[in-house]
Amino acid sequence: MQFIDLKTQYQQNKAQIDAAIARVLDHGQFLFGPEIDSLERKLADYVGVKHCISMSSGTTALHIALMALNVQAGDEVITAPFSFFAAAEVIYLLGATPVYVDINPKTYLLNPALLEAAITTKTKAIIPVSLYGQCADMDAINTIAKRHGISVIEDAAQSFGAEYKNIKSCGSMSAIACTSFFPSKPLGGYGDSGACFTNDDELAARMRLIMNHGQQGRYNHVMIGMNGRMDTLQAAILLEKFSIFEMEIALREKVAGFYRTHLPDCLMSPVIAQYNKSVYAQYTVQVEDREMAQRLLSEAGIPTAVHYPIGLHQQPVIASITAKTQHFPHTEYCANHVLSLPFHPYLQEESVNEICAVLETCCV
Fold it and tell me: Does the reported pTM lie above 0.85?
């Protein structure tokens, strides 16, 4: 059994993907090829925004978004401590300081009720992370941010395709939204890539400059930037995978339904906020004795993963940056109890039954 079955996914669309790759190899425009424009238009339309700017990775997208908002040394950026390290890393890279707000222990999303207390005169931006496939409470977060004149960057690396309150699409609810097309993501390429989304013409123009070395015309650099370009091969692959994306979202919901039906009661299955539709980037449960559960599943040939075993505030490198001791009880509890189970659109109910039968023994 595989944790994520990318090979089966490829076989579903093999002829189209192979042909798309061949077209790029034939026309030879490996950067800024026509597939880049086509992908950006399709993704912007899908999300419902004016601009999609393709990027070399989700991390690069976050970094460039902060740069476009002029986040710099001395600024503070609020985010959740229960997430992948990139959300904090890009803040540090700009000399700014991450300020953490604890999560809702059921949804794993930044708790807006704790947000206002973390805002200071130095707060420049808020990065709510839409974790495990569902959106953060963007209306509540945006309301607080607007009251204080603070920009919001949605980290939608794990939630592209998710829906919020039935009418708003993930990626359309903030000044800038960033996503990742890492291979294991709901819409994944065959390497690193990502994108930023915005309705702001000026921010879009700034991000396009920054991701191409701040270059306005060949060898005319008008601002400090970086190499953040998506390559044309990734765009071509993503265009073909996007053609079956809605079908795969439906399949993800079907597999999640298998788990909801068969998962033993002693485990906490994912809690999806009533206003959300998740794309289930991972299927993450809470288990009392994670070490035992992983051991039993491993003995049965079933792989697992832990997303994430250490809060951002507890990462070893943080100790070399700040001496301040911080505690976020919900993050720390979840970091010790979450367990991600095999999940992908093509997982069969028999396999889910097998996984849940092993987990049943953890309840004895």
Answer: yes
